[in-house]
């Protein structure tokens, strides 16, 4: 709008000379647009020619619907690892998953170089009980190679009736491929778990962000407050390690549960409607108690939004290692009876204007989790979002370089967990760190780049 206003003002002052300067570029732009449209239609005609040749000359009669679906998936996966087409069945499955209850193995996966990579196993699911780890590469399903399948096709093969068995072959750095048999089960996601550590610290673990997360969080905090007197409760540990993310609106409401005011997250996209901002409405459920947030290389998407918001507002100290770096918004666009399109439409930004994409959240207190010698050969280096082939680039103009993620190892026994141990020491005052407690006076000011919040945020990629 400012550019158009300045041209009109110049035209009013300069007369005929300005008219030439304005109309000439318009004619050139019109010709350029027509040429671009012509090129586009020429490529569409090329696709039609190839499609028809495949239909008539391929060695076996192909399925037209599968050809079209494969072409669509090829177009979308060429954009970034998170854009995809969902047929009607997969779209229904996704809607069930975001409600927090579905059938399957219980893993969050992505695609890398034609193979399926585990982002994170979900707590207390068949996959986690069978020993599936973050960064495992799945190469075969029931002895059949998955090379060449789309992500959706591979996921569909891993689904099946409750009680049926599946064998997946996984590879890990430094270890021979191994076959793991898993019995499919009804996956009921407990989005939030909680307990009281000792008798003075509330521990809340968020495993993913589905439709139940915020309500479960409220109940968890209420339960902790009912059992520990306010004068004895030293604070909370909010554990989001290996949390693969989920719904954007849930990450906003979870952040809002700990903030009294200020921006939570903004999104910026190519279109004006994708440039949005969400603000806290007040009402800290903890009553201002100290909070330490735990993250690691498996903390992605929605969990990074929460960590970034609480970090920028100095509401919590973030402890652990750098997060995954998935800072893009996937909008689900229903296509009637045909299914839905999952399309990357924007990037997330923290309240101070940091892009999460391919960069992640850096903790205020960096503390590596020691990995047992026997586990080191089994754990691959976690390159995070920046290591995914074809990932959406961070905006270089902002000077925010891309960086890999960090370790995803969390000890099975809490007594061996040094990150929880350090959080407890800080909350109880038996250890100190310059980053804790954070000074809210030094909170970063929000970047003035987005308009007021919309009514309905778009969902992010759900777990499988």
Automatic annotation (TrEMBL):
<dbReference type="InterPro" id="IPR005151">
    <property type="entry name" value="Tail-specific_protease"/>
</dbReference>
<keyword id="KW-0720">Serine protease</keyword>
<dbReference type="InterPro" id="IPR001478">
    <property type="entry name" value="PDZ"/>
</dbReference>
<feature type="compositionally biased region" description="Pro residues">
    <location>
        <begin position="448"/>
        <end position="464"/>
    </location>
</feature>
<keyword id="KW-0645">Protease</keyword>
<dbReference type="Pfam" id="PF03572">
    <property type="entry name" value="Peptidase_S41"/>
</dbReference>
<dbReference type="Pfam" id="PF22694">
    <property type="entry name" value="CtpB_N-like"/>
</dbReference>
<dbReference type="InterPro" id="IPR055210">
    <property type="entry name" value="CtpA/B_N"/>
</dbReference>
<keyword id="KW-0378">Hydrolase</keyword>
<protein>
    <submittedName>
        <fullName>Peptidase S41</fullName>
    </submittedName>
</protein>
<dbReference type="InterPro" id="IPR004447">
    <property type="entry name" value="Peptidase_S41A"/>
</dbReference>
<comment type="similarity">
    <text>Belongs to the peptidase S41A family.</text>
</comment>
<dbReference type="GO" id="GO:0008236">
    <property type="term" value="F:serine-type peptidase activity"/>
</dbReference>
<dbReference type="InterPro" id="IPR029045">
    <property type="entry name" value="ClpP/crotonase-like_dom_sf"/>
</dbReference>
<dbReference type="InterPro" id="IPR036034">
    <property type="entry name" value="PDZ_sf"/>
</dbReference>
<feature type="region of interest" description="Disordered">
    <location>
        <begin position="383"/>
        <end position="464"/>
    </location>
</feature>
<feature type="signal peptide">
    <location>
        <begin position="1"/>
        <end position="18"/>
    </location>
</feature>
<dbReference type="GO" id="GO:0006508">
    <property type="term" value="P:proteolysis"/>
</dbReference>
<dbReference type="GO" id="GO:0004175">
    <property type="term" value="F:endopeptidase activity"/>
</dbReference>
<dbReference type="Pfam" id="PF13180">
    <property type="entry name" value="PDZ_2"/>
</dbReference>
<dbReference type="GO" id="GO:0007165">
    <property type="term" value="P:signal transduction"/>
</dbReference>
<dbReference type="GO" id="GO:0030288">
    <property type="term" value="C:outer membrane-bounded periplasmic space"/>
</dbReference>
<feature type="domain" description="PDZ">
    <location>
        <begin position="91"/>
        <end position="159"/>
    </location>
</feature>
<keyword id="KW-0732">Signal</keyword>
